[in-house]
Amino acid sequence: MANTLQSAAGDSRSTKPDTDSEFLTQVGAGAVLRGALLKLLEVRSEDPIGFLADHFGNLAQSLENGDSGSAVEGDKKQHQQALQSPEEQNQHAGALWHLTQAHYSQRSAFNNNVAVAFSLLSRGGRKRKPGLKGRAYTELLRRVCRDGAVAEPVSAPLIRKLRCQDHEAVPFDLFRRAVLTCFVFADFVRKSRSLFETVSPSDGSLCRAVLGSLRDALETTGCSDPARYLEASAKLTPGRLAQAMDRAQTLASGTPSTLMGQEEFIEEASALFVSRVKRVS
Amino acid sequence: MNSKRFTLPVDEYLALEHVPFYIEDALSQLLEHKEEYTQFGIVRFFADYFNSVRNGNHILFREFSFVKATPHNRSSFLRAFWRCFRQIGKNGDLLTVMEYRSLLQLLCPDFPVELVQKAARIVLMDDAMDCLMSFPDFLYAFQIQFYYEEFFENIAVIYQDLLSGKSPNTVIVPTSFSAEQVTRPATSNTAAQEGVDSPLFCGCIEALCERYKYSHPPLSSIKEILCQVQRVSFYGFLMAIAKHEGINCDIGSLPSKADLLIDPEMDRELEKLIAQISVSPTSNSSSSTVGHKEPVRKASPRKSLHYRRRIDIESDGSNEETDSSEN
To answer: Which of A188-197, B169-178, B252-261 has the weakest average pLDDT?
Structure first.
């Protein structure tokens, strides 16, 4: 990557040696590009050109708005009057944008984005003291779930466990854990939906068998023992799952079949997830 | 782009969408137009530059070497050409090679005539090169000729080799582009009519694609085309590629033929213009060359898309209409 910048500068150097490279240094082109490329390489966006366009666009916007803080914030227009909701909305939108830039499996990129989002939300306004308040934090978690296509009734139990009092100050570590939990939850709900679509054409007993196996596996895991995770995943191998489904079908063959609806399935599956989440004290 | 991008080395990841190329071009543009761009700050400059790359406007009025440099540039250019000149298709005008080239030069001043001629050869099946071509026929042929230029050069070499009876077991991976110099000997005209054996041709193309670094049409589409006939001629093959809807979708610049001429904004503008002209009392003034044109266009039936010799009446019509669409 350093080669890119060097060769680009080098090409121009061959035509008018001093003036061109001097000019580029003077306007700070190298630093700006380096920052952008580092960010791009961290995130490994599927659409690098689009990412760079957004990145520079947000950066230009924040510079034009005269922000004194870090120039990588994705703020939209800042209102000069301290209207709290529009300002908060902008901050929320900016924070959400950052959080969605990298998937949580990209740990370091995701953690960096969470840090940026946190500092964005913690900035004091004209009437607000700095720091992230519980109300904004809870609202953000709701948005993350909503944007992840999780219906309100499904995410409500999770939010209840994660929420803070409206005027409580939220520390960064809690923020990071809660945001990560919400993203993972959104993925979990998505996967449950597709699991349901695979299993559901048959009767409800198979759905319940699948959920039972999942519950069984999840209950096996303990916080401190890595071996338990192996044990848990062994319970979910295709063979074991097939056996469980077969057992359920044999047991149910005498009784009339009861279909299971999608909402019910998702509710039960998400309950399994939420039960594993520690309540915020 | 698939999830492999997370494990690629830095250089390979950036090269996927030609990021270093665009950065270099951005810096060259910045240096060429220093005063203009530093007025608003270089961050705004980079934002505008990458936005225009994303939207496909970046190729307008740029030199040909830039326009052909990446697949994205080529497809953006094709799309821009279509959007600018689709009204010609609506009029049903037929134009010559040089007229199409002039239109292309409006968007790219140094666009080479050879490329336009190659496209025309596909439409006209390498025959009667002074014939007129309809806009859709030319556009689809031009699209594949421009987008897959290098690939077709290699295919031409393979085709010639097969015609001259070289062993089909030779895996041909051409490394140079001297295929430009491949002339078709006079004797091959008859052979060209007969073509080459399709399965054999298909096998050679498959071998080429396996190690090919330039863009090429999806192999499945090529096989689809070649399995329909026992023997295929070179231009027959190219014409089939030009007409193939799957390949058109794969390139992603142009809509399907049914939607090619749809241009609701321009239609509304023209209807407004017509309405103004028809209520205007001074319909004989010179400013109503537009008015003169409108009734002609409305009166003439949609011409069917055949190739005809130039007739005086049509040449007048097409000149005026070409002029207006250049406005």
So the answer is: B169-178
Mutation target among A4, A7, A63, A67 for the B interface, most CBs of B within 10 A = A4
| Sequence-ordered strand ranges (E) for chain B | 94-95, 133-134, 196-197, 231-232
> Which has more pLDDT, B128 or B60?
B60
pTM value is 0.58
Across the interface, of A3, A48, A63, the residue whose CB is closest to B19 is: A48
Per-residue pLDDT band for A74 (boundaries 50, 70, 90) equals very low
The partner residue sitting opposite B42, judged by closest CB among A7, A32, A64, is A32
Q: Where among A42, A57, A76 does a domain terminate? A: A76
* Minimum Cα–Cα distance from A56: chain B residue: B47
In a domain, A205, yes or no: yes
Instruction: Let me know if residue A194 belongs to a domain.
Output: yes
Tokens describing residue A260 = 């299971």
Q: Are B318 and B135 in contact (CB under 8 A)?
A: no
Q: Which domain holds residue A265?
A: 184-274
Q: Least CA distance to A55: which residue of chain B?
A: B47
3-state secondary structure of A45: coil
User: What CA–CA distance (Å, rounded) separates B149 from B248?
Assistant: 15
**Percentage with pLDDT > 90 across chain B:** 35
Name the DSSP class of A133: B
Tell me, what's the ipTM?
0.72
Q: Which of A6, A19, A27, A52 to mutate to test the interface with B (most CBs of B within 10 A)?
A: A52
Q: What residue ranges in B184-303 does DSSP mark as E strands?
A: 196-197, 231-232
CA dist B14 and B25 (Å) reads: 15
| Min Cα–Cα distance to chain A from B25, Å | 8
A24 or B325: whose pLDDT is higher?
A24
Is A108 part of any domain? no
A contact test, residue of B4, B16, B46 with most A CBs within 10 A? B46
Which of A44, A76, A108 delimits the end of a domain? A76
Model pLDDT, residue A106 = 78
What's the gap in Å between the CA of B45 and the closest CA on chain A? 9
Say yes or no for a CB contact (<8 Å) between B27 and A28. no
Count of pairs with CB atoms under 8 A, one residue in A, one in B: 94
Cα distance between residue B240 and residue B41, in whole Å: 50
- Stretch B313-326: mean pLDDT, rounded? 44
How many independent structural domains does chain A possess?
2
Least confident range of A16-20, A48-52, B139-143: A16-20
Go through chain B and tell me how many residues it has.
Answer: 327
Residues in chain A: 281
CA distance A60 to chain B (A): 5
Instruction: State the smallest CA–CA distance between residue A98 and chain B in angstroms.
Output: 18
Q: Does residue A179 fall inside a structural domain?
A: no
* Chain A residue with the nearest C-alpha to that of B11: A1
